[in-house]
Every structure is written in structure tokens, then in C-alpha cells.
TrEMBL record:
<dbReference type="Pfam" id="PF00107">
    <property type="entry name" value="ADH_zinc_N"/>
</dbReference>
<feature type="domain" description="Enoyl reductase (ER)">
    <location>
        <begin position="13"/>
        <end position="323"/>
    </location>
</feature>
<keyword id="KW-0521">NADP</keyword>
<dbReference type="InterPro" id="IPR013154">
    <property type="entry name" value="ADH-like_N"/>
</dbReference>
<dbReference type="InterPro" id="IPR011032">
    <property type="entry name" value="GroES-like_sf"/>
</dbReference>
<dbReference type="InterPro" id="IPR014189">
    <property type="entry name" value="Quinone_OxRdtase_PIG3"/>
</dbReference>
<dbReference type="InterPro" id="IPR036291">
    <property type="entry name" value="NAD(P)-bd_dom_sf"/>
</dbReference>
<dbReference type="GO" id="GO:0016651">
    <property type="term" value="F:oxidoreductase activity, acting on NAD(P)H"/>
</dbReference>
<dbReference type="InterPro" id="IPR020843">
    <property type="entry name" value="ER"/>
</dbReference>
<dbReference type="InterPro" id="IPR013149">
    <property type="entry name" value="ADH-like_C"/>
</dbReference>
<protein>
    <submittedName>
        <fullName>NAD(P)H-quinone oxidoreductase</fullName>
    </submittedName>
</protein>
<dbReference type="GO" id="GO:0070402">
    <property type="term" value="F:NADPH binding"/>
</dbReference>
<dbReference type="Pfam" id="PF08240">
    <property type="entry name" value="ADH_N"/>
</dbReference>
<keyword id="KW-0560">Oxidoreductase</keyword>
Length: 325
């Protein structure tokens, strides 16, 4: 096939700017594979790119889509695994909202045993993000008090399961009783409905948080600093309420806090390959054994990507949203 179906961003704007199109089928470069996409995950960075505030890195496809599952159909020079015919899930630099996509072979992982392609498409973006930020950057240890904001999101539901499995005490914030219950069902010790309770007071009563994973930003940043215990760590991965805030750094000094954060997409091929290696060794056996699994919200056909974005931005979903290609 010379051309493929895809969804492109016609101009910066709301979900309605996502339109079907045809594009050339990509060819693999050295170190890359081409995947025939079965499902593509829908993530917040896709919406940011659509709105014009998250440009693709140099050389990446301008099509949205940062994770997928499917079958490898072409292999570039220098690739030992995966091979043509293998089913994989993969982290993508972009281009997932399409029938075919090229990505570094080192960012592919096998579909876990017993898991369908729909569920596997939900693994890469969230598991790469959570593992690199919570465990590699945040240094979460067994027994620590870990607060996750947005506990019912794809990131949140993944973080709950991984942290609980590795022995941390998990606390979350969420915006409804249904979302709070979903977090408790996954293993959270305490779910804080932020519309009814102050997470700062709740966590201070527990002795403060040792680690906080935050995607909200805005005034949550200063509240997080108040919430952290001595020698606590704040890891910032998004700013749904904005990146700028007035902050009392005296608390950072007095409590010896660490404030850090990262974005996944702009990191080097090698950096993301190292995350993949750790996931393959330490997390994929848990998925193979069925001890953890992605939480699924809904599925949309590729042509209804706009509706999928509208659901995600409505913030009523619990878990992951996928596009069926």
C-alpha cells in the first residue's frame, strides 16, 4: 500500500479540527520498524498538540498519537527485534492516529501474555511516564506515602497499581465518588475527593507525603510543597491549571524538598530505550502474570477521534481511551 488512512490536525483548536486524511505509508529508517496499527491510545499530550501548545519534536510525524499496538510489517537496517509479523505495543514520537506508523525498534515491547491488542495499546505512554517519573526520577520506596493527583486518569490508575505492588502506601485525589471508588478498588489506601476535602489537611494528618506525582499544576504546586514531609519529592508531569505560580521557597529549604519533573516525548531515543529496558525487566513480568493491567474506559473508531478527544477533555472518563484502527 502506498497510502493510508490517518487523522490530521487541520489547524490549532478544539476536537473538531481533527479530520480524516490520507498520507503516504512510512518507510522504516535505520533502527526503526513500521507497525500496522490495530489500536492507538488517546492521551492528554495529543490534545495539547491539537490545541497548538505541544509541537512534535524535530523529525517526528505531525499526526497525533504517542502509543499504539499492532503488527510489525517492515524492519529497518540494524534491527534484531522485533521482526516482521511480531505483535507489539510501542511508544511513538507521533503518528499513531493512522493505519501505519514508524517508531524506533528500541521503543517496542511485546504484547503481554493473555492481553489483547486493545489493552496493549494503553501501556506504553502511561507506563513509560509512570516508571520514569515515579521510580527512576522520584525514587519511590516501599512503605513511603505516595500522593497521586488525578488518580482515575490513565496515568493515575497505572501509578496506583505499580506503587501498590512495590509496597508504597498510595493516596490519591479525584473529583467524584465514582472515581474515588475506582482508585480504592485498584489498591489505593485513601481516595480524597478534592471537591469535598483538602488534600493538604488529609495528608498532613498522615505525616505528609514522601512523594507527590502532579499533573495539575497551578495552585496545587504551593499546596504540594505544604503537603510534603521532610525530604519529600514533588514530580511534575503536566500543568492542567498552568505552570506559573507564586511559591514560598523557604519551605523547600526548611523541609529539604526536591522538586523535579519531566516530559517524555522530547527525550532522546536512547533515554526512552533505557526506560523500555527497565519496563521489560521489572514491569512486563507483572503484566504477563496478570498482576496489573490497564484500566479501560472507552473505544472509538479512528474516524471518531474528535469524539474521543471530547470525552477525554470532559474529564468524566476513568482509565484509558483508545482508537480502533
Amino acid at each position: 500500500m502506498a497510502e493510508m488512512r490517518a487523522i490530521e490536525i487541520t489547524q490549532p483548536g478544539g476536537p473538531e479540527v481533527l479530520k480524516p486524511c490520507t498520507r503516504p505509508v512510512p518507510e522504516p529508517e535505520a533502527g526503526q520498524v513500521v507497525i500496522k496499527v490495530a489500536y492507538a491510545g488517546v492521551n492528554r499530550p495529543d490534545a495539547l498538540q491539537r490545541a497548538g501548545s505541544y509541537a512534535p519534536p524535530p523529525g517526528a510525524s505531525d499526526l497525533p498519537g504517542l502509543e499504539c499496538s499492532g503488527e510489525v510489517v517492515a524492519v529497518g537496517p540494524g534491527v534484531d527485534w522485533p521482526r516482521a509479523g511480531d505483535q507489539v505495543c510501542a511508544l511513538l514520537p507521533g503518528g499513531g492516529y493512522a493505519e501505519y506508523v514508524a517508531t524506533p525498534a528500541a521503543h517496542c515491547l511485546p504484547v503481554p501474555r493473555g492481553m489483547g491488542l486493545k489493552e496493549a495499546a494503553c501501556l506504553p505512554e502511561t507506563f513509560f511516564t509512570v516508571w520514569s517519573n515515579v521510580f527512576m526520577r522520584g525514587g519511590l520506596q516501599a512503605g513511603e506515602r505516595f500522593l497521586i493527583h488525578g488518580g482515575s486518569s490513565g496515568i493515575g490508575t497505572t501509578a496506583i497499581q505499580l506503587a501498590q505492588h512495590f509496597g508504597a502506601r498510595v493516596f490519591v485525589t479525584a473529583g467524584s465518588a465514582e472515581k474515588c471508588q475506582a482508585c480504592l478498588d485498584l489498591g489505593a489506601e485513601r481516595a480524597i475527593n478534592y471537591r469535598e476535602e483538602d488534600f493538604v489537611k488529609v495528608m498532613k494528618a498522615e505525616g505528609g507525603a514522601n512523594l507527590i506525582l502532579d499533573m495539575v499544576g497551578g495552585d496545587y504546586i504551593s499546596r504540594n510543597v505544604k503537603t510534603l514531609a521532610e525530604d519529600g519529592r514533588l514530580v511534575q508531569i503536566a500543568f492542567l491549571q498552568g505552570p506559573q505560580v507564586e511559591l514560598n521557597f523557604a519551605l523547600v529549604m526548611v523541609k529539604r524538598l526536591t522538586i523535579t519533573g519531566s516530559t517524555l516525548r522530547p527525550q532522546s531515543v536512547l533515554a526512552k530505550a533505557r526506560i523500555a529496558d527497565q519496563l521489560r525487566e521489572q514491569v512486563w513480568p507483572l503484566l504477563d502474570a496478570g498482576k496489573i493491567a490497564p484500566v479501560m474506559d472507552s473505544e472509538f473508531p479512528l474516524e471518531e477521534a474528535a469524539a474521543a478527544h471530547a470525552r477525554m477533555e470532559g474529564s468524566t472518563h476513568i482509565g484509558k481511551i483508545v482508537l480502533r484502527v
